[in-house]
Amino acid sequence: MSTKEAKQKAPKTKPANPAQMSGAEMVIKALIEQGVEVIFGYPGGAVLPIYDEIFKNKDKIKHVLVRQEGGALHAAEGYARSTGKVGCALVTSGPGATNAVTGLTDALLDSIPVVCITGQVPTFLIGTDAFQEADTTGITRPCTKHNYLVKDANEVAETVHEAFHVARSGRPGPVVIDIPKDVQFAPGTYKDAKTPGKHNYKPKTQADIAAIEAAVELMANAKQPVFYTGGGIINAGPEASKLLRELVRETGFPITSTLMGLGAYPANDKQWLGMLGMHGTFEANWAMHDCDVMICIGARFDDRVTGRIDKFSPNSTKIHIDIDPSSINKNIHVHIPVVADAASALRAMLEVWKKRKYKADKDAAQKWWTQIEQWRAKNCLAYKNDDKIIKPQYALERLRHFTEKDARDTYITTEVGQHQMWAAQFLAFNEPNRWMTSGGLGTMGYGLPAAIGTQMAHPDALVIDVAGEASIQMNIQEIATAIQYRTPVKVFILNNQWMGMVRQWQELLHGERYSESYTESLPDFVKLAEAYGGVGLRAETPDELDGVIEKMLKTDCITIVDVCVAQKENCFPMIPSGKAHNEMILSPDAEAFDKSLV
Amino acid sequence: MIQALKKRAKSSEKKSKSVYAPNPVNEEIESHTLAIIVENEPGVLSRVIGFFTGRGYNIDSLTVAETDHEETTSRITIVARGTPTVIEQIKASLRQLVPVKRVRDLTTFGPHIERELALIKVAGRGDKRIETLRIADVFRARPVDSTLESFVFEITGTTEKVDAFIELMKPLGLVDVSRTGIAAISRGATTHDDED
């Protein structure tokens, strides 16, 4: 509201109170105060007052219209993950809110800070099965870090501020604010970000120094140590990655990371073992299995990482640094738990290591690295290339080659499936916040909207969504969003005409009974891209691949590349179900895969 | 060593088609009484309970009421059952909930008192009524309502005592039971703010 308007509307007897405004005005004012630059959303009846304010504040806050609310949440996630800021989404009541649920759950499992504002039917209609009414706070309670239903306009501003605080503090996560339409219209008093919220939410972030000292002492005496890091390092900010690099170099220990933690440690470094877990490298998983001291920082011993838990790293003493106390001892019993923010813990560890002049045991280190080199020599990511058919791994190697030559900063998002694992294996991440993927929830359809969100945050960067032909169709409508906002994201589809990961499991574990995993009636992705107004490219043979990638990198609008890859290629190495890290199979073993498992 | 491990791993393998690892070996099940102080706001009980159902944890008893009207805080007393690992998980996760102020495990904290209140209706005529009153007297259950063919008793005590009384009332014409669930508090001068 401009001051002129405010003066006109204010009662003549009293001076105008500049803090007095409507709920909807407060929402936008609070978002601006929180530093929100972009908001991803979709309008509807119950959020129209807020959309009205967006219209009035066009110069201060940018709204990105997605094509389905699910896309808004994933775009906000991509934005958040690539910037370290809180992502913001705005959707309407009922179907708007229910469509947001997948994205919220995704953000919860991957600890992505997102604030989602949902419209709600007016307070006097709540509970009457009103048009587009859904019990949003009820539905989203288990899939958010916290949620609010605001019934008083005076509480709108402080709720928004507190929501941002909750979303970004401690272990980050999604927060929903449900605002009934009458509250959006009602007048109230604006409170700024310094106003204390209703709850006193202050998670512990500083490490207990005694625990840190015990951990560092254990590290100093380790013979076969390994760092196992995760998304927590990325969430702790660039400082944490820097400190991690320093500590790893200082100790000389090998380091592996989860899918979510890729980029925290540079992939081109010789101490880097590659990703661990179900499709991790041979050397990473064997190092985890045989280590005597495991230093887990910001990872949560997920079942895709541990494999069979009763055989998980049987001879190691485990240090677990996590900001979430409930992650400790959840899946795996650890010996030295440290509840702390990764950056603060790493800083303390480095200090202790240097102050006490610790040196890693040289003889032991040499033996350990010799062993690791033997595992590395297995060359576990090797695959049989072909000169007639494009192998998906080859396509990604070429993509890596060209992106490394490209002067732009490269950000990669993925969908979910084989292509995601290959991307994690074959692309190299040397900096944090460059890798956006749906790890915990495994949401197909995540990659394209996440790429759009990432590109909105980094307009000059090269943003590539490595996709599969099945996943991409789950949020394909977002091509229109990319066109509208001229976000030149590249969609690199590894098209094998199968739901590859499903097919792989069916081949290996369900007697080659390929139930419903063939992606029949595929669209022509080139024409599809053109129909939306983008660029479509296709590579059918290895010869065409380089040219197509080069063309893709030169386009200035959304570009869909249909890479026709080998249909029955499987993703290896792989830890089969219920097996331990040291029982993983490599691609040459695959032909001898124990099909009697079926 | 690695070879030996490999062999051991192979021999003890069970065939599985699941994409998940088998269920780990179970530990002993324990019962713990938790006192949870929460911000009394809409949905807070649902948030606490939803967490239990969502994670497949068991609740044996649940009591809730606002205890501080000025600060609008409520006290939830939950008797939860699970392995020691699960109990630790429950406590750590409850502490992560935004409206939860404090969580105290009374079972591990030290001596504490647990009480339940029950209203028990017994219907019948003749000799049984006299027997009913005699037993009620032994249990210090107070009749709070009476007709010529029924009594309602109020009894306070531990869960075991209430259970025992109900058991004895069954042959004497027990028709209805209403119980509050457990309210619990620590003994001595310790307050809820003291460290565990």
Helix-strand layout with pairing:
The complex is a heterodimer of chains A (598) and B (196).
Chain A: H1 3-9, E1 20-22, H2 23-33, E2 38-41, H3 48-56, E3 62-65, H4 69-83, E4 87-91, H5 95-109, E5 114-120, H6 136-140, E6 146-149, H7 156-168, E7 174-180, H8 181-185, E8 187-189, H9 209-220, E9 225-229, H10 231-235, H11 238-251, E10 255-257, E11 272-275, H12 282-290, E12 293-297, H13 303-306, E13 317-322, E14 336-339, H14 342-355, H15 362-376, H16 392-405, E15 410-414, H17 418-426, E16 435-436, H18 447-457, E17 462-468, H19 479-484, E18 490-495, H20 500-509, H21 525-532, E19 535-539, H22 542-554, E20 559-564, H23 587-590
Parallel strand pairs in A: 2-3, 2-4, 4-5, 5-7, 6-7, 9-10, 9-12, 10-11, 12-13, 13-14, 15-16, 15-17, 17-18, 18-20, 19-20
Antiparallel strand pairs in A: 1-8
Chain B: H1 2-11, E1 30-39, H2 44-54, E2 58-68, E3 73-82, H3 84-96, E4 100-105, H4 106-109, E5 112-123, H5 127-138, E6 142-147, E7 150-157, H6 159-169, E8 174-179, E9 183-186
Antiparallel strand pairs in B: 1-3, 1-4, 2-3, 5-7, 5-8, 5-9, 6-7
Please, could you describe this protein's structure?
The complex is a heterodimer of chains A (598) and B (196). Chain A is α/β, with parallel strands linked by helices and 598 residues long. Chain A has 23 helices and 20 strands. Chain A folds into three domains: 3-189, Thiamin diphosphate (ThDP)-binding fold, Pyr/PP domains (Rossmann fold); 209-376, TPP-binding domain (Rossmann fold), CATH 3.40.50; 392-571, Rossmann fold (3-Layer(aba) Sandwich). Chain A has a six-stranded parallel beta sheet with strand order 3-2-4-5-7-6, sandwiched between helices. A six-stranded parallel beta sheet of chain A has the order 11-10-9-12-13-14, sandwiched between helices. Chain A has a six-stranded parallel beta sheet with strand order 16-15-17-18-20-19, sandwiched between helices. The longest helix of chain A has 15 residues, at 69-83. Chain A starts with a helix and ends in an 8-residue tail after the last helix. Chain B has two domains: 30-110, 2-Layer Sandwich (Alpha-Beta Plaits), CATH 3.30.70; 113-184, Alpha-Beta Plaits (2-Layer Sandwich), CATH 3.30.70. Chain B has six helices and nine strands, in the order H-E-H-E-E-H-E-H-E-H-E-E-H-E-E. Chain B has helices at residues 2-11, 44-54, 84-96, 106-109, 127-138, 159-169; strands at residues 30-39, 58-68, 73-82, 100-105, 112-123, 142-147, 150-157, 174-179, 183-186. At the A-B interface, strand 6 of A face helix 1, helix 2 and helix 3 of B.
